[in-house]
Design brief:
By secondary structure, this protein is α+β, with helices and mostly antiparallel strands. It has 2 domains: 98 residues, Pseudouridine synthase I, catalytic domain, N-terminal subdomain (Alpha-Beta Plaits), CATH 3.30.70.580; 137 residues, Alpha-Beta Plaits, CATH 3.30.70. It is built from 5 helices and 10 strands; from the N terminus they run βαββαβββαβββααβ. Strands 1, 2, 3, 4, 5, 6, 7, 8, 9 and 10 form a 10-stranded mixed β-sheet that branches. β8 and β9 form a beta hairpin. The protein is globular and about 60 Å long.
Length: 250
């Protein structure tokens, strides 16, 4: 009889083409998990379906992604965790395994997510952090970025910040916390909301950085939101600075 297993995992997304299956590559997080679970449980690979709380893009990292899968196995939580970590590559770690209610769905039951975006503007190369930082050409005006960020907090139509210009569903989302910190040449931006559109965090980061470097004004943000036009917002920040930090459930 199958049980519904909930996984909390971390991964370095540098060499992967995102979370979700891709037609021409095996290098996805979802694909790696399903192949390993198939091998451990003896279930046919096509019968193992791992559902993630979100679909991180190529190159994006996660400290606490949540996923679930229905598995036919006699292994219990700790044994399954150990076996998964034994066979998964070193850039994916299973941190917790729990048997949960059959009704639990990692994506549909999520009520919020926290993302962090990290930048660096120092003159010395961040050799050991380089895969997790966006390297800036200089120091942006962080105070201007903070003023711009205030306009993004709340419930808005974020169509201007959606990477999928053909998205048919509602683009209304709520951001209830947006914090920008600066310490020793590092700028970190924290976003918490009830859900995010495709590339939304990276476009918001790019827009805030454009404000910081004087390409946009903080006061332009309300007009950008109102326009509901991707062309009005700033650039899409590169993937490597982005990390999913936490997924919230009731």
């Amino acid at each position: 009889m199958k049980s519904n297993f909930k996984f909390t995992l971390s991964y370095d997304g540098s060499r992967y083409f995102g979370w979700e299956h891709q037609p021409n590559t095996e290098l996805t997080i979802q694909g790696k998990l399903e192949r390993v679970l198939s091998g451990i449980t003896g279930m046919p690979e096509g019968d193992v379906k791992v559902i993630g709380a979100g679909r991180t893009d190529a190159g994006v990292h996660a400290r606490a992604m949540v996923a679930n899968a229905f598995l036919d196995t006699e292994l219990r939580e700790d044994a399954l965790l150990n076996e998964m970590n034994r066979f998964l590559p070193d850039d994916i770690s299973i941190n917790e395994v729990k048997i949960c209610s059959p009704r639990f769905h990692a994506r549909y039951n999520a009520i919020g997510k926290t993302y962090r975006y990290s930048c660096y503007f120092g003159t010395r190369k961040p050799v050991f952090e380089r895969k997790y930082l966006s390297i800036l050409s200089g120091r942006p005006d962080v105070d201007a970025m903070k003023r711009a960020a205030e306009f993004l907090v709340g419930e808005h139509d974020f169509r201007s910040f959606c990477g999928n210009t053909h998205f048919k569903k509602s683009t209304i989302r709520k951001i209830d916390h947006l914090e920008i910190t600066e310490k020793t040449c590092h700028i970190r931006m924290y976003f918490h909301g009830n859900g995010f559109l495709q590339n939304q965090v990276r476009i918001m980061v790019g827009t805030l950085l454009d404000v910081g470097f004087g390409k946009l004004a903080a006061e332009d943000i309300p007009e950008i939101l109102e326009a509901r036009d991707r062309g009005r917002a700033g650039h899409t920040a590169e993937a490597r600075g982005l990390c999913l930090m936490k997924v919230d459930y009731e």
